[in-house]
Design goal:
10 helices, 24% strand, 378 residues, 29% helix, alpha/beta
Amino acid sequence: MSGQTAINGDKPPAAVVLVGGGHAHVAVLADWIAGGIPAGARAVLLTPERHLRYSGMVPGWLAGQHGRDDGLVDLAALTVRAGVELVLDRCTALDPEAREVRTASGRAIAFDIASFDTGGAARGAALLGDDPRLIDIRPIGAFVDHTAALPTLGRVVVAGGGAGGVELAFGLRNRAGASPPPEVLLVTGDEGVLPGFADSVRRKVTRALARQGIAVIAASARFEGGAITAGGQSLEPADCIIAATGSAAPGWVQVSGIATDASGFIAVDAHQRSTSHPHIFAAGDVAARTDRPLAHSGVHAVFAGPVLAANLRSLLAGEPPRATYRPRRHSLYLMNTGDGSAIASYGPLFAEGRWVLALKHRIDKGWIAKYAALARAL
């Protein structure tokens, strides 16, 4: 592929590289399956895994509500249907001026247009320190593999008080096949449970944690002298420490020369387009919107997918991107409590019950089923 190919006219078709098989890029593949690759472009999906694991179903898997592979999207099958070349490798470098990405195996892939949906990088060790018991939730596939191989757990520390950490604490407390259930400590950091959520929701979730015997420690976890501690207190013994501490920007983004926010994530506008390189797009945890604050959350990556697909189609047609993702004032969160129930949160409003879990399962399984149907139609 030549990174200098023109997009329009009688020149060879444009080279498009999708870097990462995340939640937004599966929507791009679905769009190309439905309508063909725009302008006859030549397209590559660069990703290290043949499947996307939907992170929203992982706590339910821990609690025995889903099979281990129920939350997988078959990227390989989708690329075949879309007419996209699949390269199973990891992006390690980006040169936005030369229009080239490099992979872990040393391959150089040139592009005219690139889109990034790689997710963020693990940062548990950077925040807590290194220890052989530490398991970061990023990448999610490795987390599932590692967690599935764990023997019987007596005591687990979950570091991170966001929605992801809370759900994992519930899932581990209700770990399938565990008798007795593991003792779980949720170490939230100084901001406590669910920072940024309404106080009413935080109180509801805190009560649910207490009801299940999950201890909450509002301090920052770290390793000191080989022991896991929080607020100067030892939390030992601990069989494993789960780092649900959010994501860091990948190092290759920060040294690439592309515009980033203060934390090193790719800076994008309302069209998910790079603020410095108009031939590059990004969505999901690797990106940061500059027009409005937007939390790194799978729900936003899912909604950004169709916008990304529309804007890639526009740019390949020689038109400016027009589609935008305008998040609502509040996002709906459905937090699985692992015990057959779930808590719904929408701004200050909340609800709890088995019907909330049924709703969550229906939404999650529906999202997976949509792509499974596309993959089966080979």
